[in-house]
Amino acid sequence: MIDIASFVRSGDGVWWTQGAAEPVPLVDALLDALPRIGTVEAFVGLCWNPRITEDPPADLRLSSYGALGNLRHLANGRLAVHRVPWSRLPDLFTDGSVRLDVGIIQVSPPDADGNCSLGLGADYVWDAAQHTRVLIAEINERMPRSVDAPSISLTRFAATIRTSRPLLELAERHPREADSTISTHIAGLIDDGDTIQIGVGQVPSAVLSRLRNHEDLGVHSGVVTNGIADLVDRGVITGARKEIDTGLVVAGAAIGSQAFYERTAQAPFAFRPVSYTHAPATLARFARLVAINSAVEVDVMGRVNAEVRAGHYVGAIGGQADFAHGAAQSGGRSIIALPSHTGGASTIVRRVNLVTTPAADVDMIVTEHGVAHIAGCDDLERARRIIAIADPAHREALERSIHHSLSPST
Fold first, then answer.
1. Average pLDDT over residues 292-311
2. pLDDT tens digits for range 215-249
């Protein structure tokens, strides 16, 4: 193992790759070396490393674009959150809002020309690497060499380690009854030939399982999961009608099983950086983009909170704002899906305290009780449609709460 303290100085800004591409051995080496290094400002996205949250070092000042994975356990003040859409992440790297002195990444073994693929973890890595003084790499024999991911020359790394270990996996959970009903509603909103963006979780997994009778779907997303590969292999996802990247499944990263990771090394999977996948100019080229995203809560005006529950960060703006806006502007559909209640509390509320996605970028809201088509509605009609899909136990209170403020007679 290399001595991380040889490359990281007190006060440095360190970042590392996220999710399945997290370079766990090197991150652990950094944590072990912190007593010798001193204070470090660290940036990471989705993180599953229990050492970060179970016993976070006092010298580690952690920031992220959200509270995903184990980071949500630090949403008590130990985590600084940059509240920006994913399309703005490259701006944070360029203007110095996120310090990028040392980058710790995981890559595939070099090819004959000495270039290491970012594999299934391109997302913010490529954009951050362009502004980073020192790069340290875990070269993992198990990291797939994606046919379309950016590569970094072996000569660019100040130090490397060689491993052959499985990538981190995301265990799939069986959808709840409400999730299954929601997914059935959403599947009916997707037409053959549409290009979809879909996230991670029980509802997205259930939605993908409901699309097996569709034809010629395309995918352009921030992340892809096991269910995408199943639809590719079934001939449902072909990308044949995509306006750009025809025939390709384009994403920034993959999260799922080992078998899925191995599958992504083959066509049609193409992993690209956030500066491409989430760029407004890229999304504007789609004519039939359907964005499917989840939420913590939605208010009766259609404003979406996908970040905070009970005052604590549990999510992120992520790509939701980018894709919702892109879909709504392209003539596609921006869909927000959520169960009507959580722990007995309604997820449809009078007013959200924090807006992740504005109502203007939401076409439809879906719960297990139906679909609220809200695009183009006036305030009163929008509220009525949204309340109609709220949990029945909370509808009367919601109707009373809006009567005075929205009724035309007042």
1. 95
2. 999 999 999 999 999 999 999 999 999 999 999 99
The third-level CATH classification (topology) of the domain covering 177-406 is Glutaconate Coenzyme A-transferase (3.40.1080)
Per-residue pLDDT, averaged over 161-187, amounts to 91
Superfamily name with CATH number, domain 4-163: Glutaconate Coenzyme A-transferase (3.40.1080.10)
Do residues 15 and 98 lie in contact, with contact meaning Cβ atoms separated by under 8 Å? yes
Alpha-carbon gap, residue 68 to 52, rounded angstroms: 12
Domain ranges of the chain: 4-163, 177-406
| Of 282, 270, 274, 281, nearest in space to 126 by CA | 274
Query: What pTM value is reported for the model?
Result: 0.95
The torsion defined by the Cα of 152, 153, 156 and 162, in degrees rounded to 10, comes to 90
Distance CA 3, CA 7 (A): 8
- How far is 316 from 79, CA to CA, in rounded Å? 13
Residue 352 phi, psi dihedral angles, 5° rounding: -75, 150
Contact assessment for residue 257 and residue 166, using Cβ atoms and an 8 Å cutoff: no
Q: Which pLDDT does position 410 carry in this prediction?
A: 42
